[in-house]
UDP-glucuronic acid decarboxylase 1
Amino acid sequence: MSSVILLAWYANLNKLNLTVLQFFFYTAGYHLLQPILNYNLESKSKKEEKSIKNQRDVFNEINLLKNKISELEISLEQAEFRVPKTFPNIKFLNYKDRKRILVTGGAGFVGSHLVDYLMREGHEVIVVDNFFTGRKRNVEHWIGHGNFELIHHDIVNPLLIEVDEIYHLASPASPPHYMLNPVKTIKTNTVGTINMLGLARRVNARILIASTSEVYGDPEIHPQSESYWGHVNPIGPRACYDEGKRVAETLSYAYAKQEKVQVRVARIFNTYGPRMHMNDGRVVSNFILQALQNESITIYGHGKQTRSFQYVSDLVDGLVALMNSSYTLPINLGNPVEHTIDEFAQIIKSIVNGADSSIRYLPAVEDDPQRRRPDITRAKKYLNWEPKISLDAGLRKAVEYFRREILRSSMPIFPKVSPRNSDKELW
Ligand SMILES: NC(=O)c1ccc[n+]([C@@H]2O[C@H](COP(=O)([O-])OP(=O)(O)OC[C@H]3O[C@@H](n4cnc5c(N)ncnc54)[C@H](O)[C@@H]3O)[C@@H](O)[C@H]2O)c1
């Protein structure tokens, strides 16, 4: 620094010109700053080296953990292999009585209960499902059992398989599900049903078609007996399902007449119970969910419309009785005890202890039937069948199931909002 001051003094003495002076100052400044610049560059590269080393350490750590996880997975698999899975008890059936039974839609709500029944009886059961609304969890207790097989397959595509009986249940069943992709719903119920009837014809299997009370549409007669032809809007939002099922019935009787296929047709009314879809937008699930979570219970319309609900084990008994019977015309399977939606909301509130949910009324759902009650005279006469489980007993089991499912889920489960008259975006 002192040399710079000396230089300035000397320059002043000797009257050196300004450019020469500037040159000297720049050179001096450069020499002064260089060590500082060098120091900064060195510390930066040291920091980079350190962070690269840190990153390398983290990667090594991750790789070590990955290796440990795969080691644990392998030992878990080996442990599972050593400890045989325990299955629910089943009856022993000899070769002559044991049937190979295909259940389409067997991973769904009704299908999985039917599978439980057939497995317990000692039959061989093959489930075919595309898991659109079904879940592996519904049948996981049978996976690995020698009598059980699960096939991931969409019935819109043909299936070649050797079976003695087919319960054809594959189809979305609740309005939010079947309206999500109406064309697929129609294909499943038409092309899918043709595939199943074709399979039944080829292997000479008896086939039961799961039809629905929706074939009666918004009925003009009450209660609905099987001889009633129905009141269906062919272009309404429910038509993909209602008309799909009507065609499925028509196809069944065409195959029966022309191809001598043994068909059974069950017209199923509202069914509830464990494993039903938590947020399928149906009355039972919506009300239970809302009551359990202390939300207000939503009723679409005035609440005086009626429904009758059957517990799922009653339906399974009815399906099996129909399959084993010689009765070939459609048959209603449902619980004739009728409740208004208002009454129903009150019953659920009283079962869900401590539910202080209020009741909220919203505009009615388009084409929502006002009254629905099965006439089950045929089922009583030809199948010797009628529902046994009371609404109270059945709802308690359903509420318990919902309670457990809510606990399993870390987030609140919101009921689906059913499409209303104003929801034109459906089209
Ligand atoms: N639950 C009821 O209240 C009720 C009422 C009337 C009729 N039904 C009929 O009973 C049957 C079963 O209903 P659910 O309540 O168990 O419904 P769900 O939705 O629980 O079960 C239907 C099953 O079919 C499967 N599926 C759908 N499309 C398929 C396809 N293309 N290929 C293969 N699998 C497919 C789904 O993944 C699901 O596992 C349906 O045919 C339904 O129409 C049910």
User: Anything to note?
Assistant: The first strand starts at residue 100 and ends at 104. The chain has a mean pLDDT of 87.
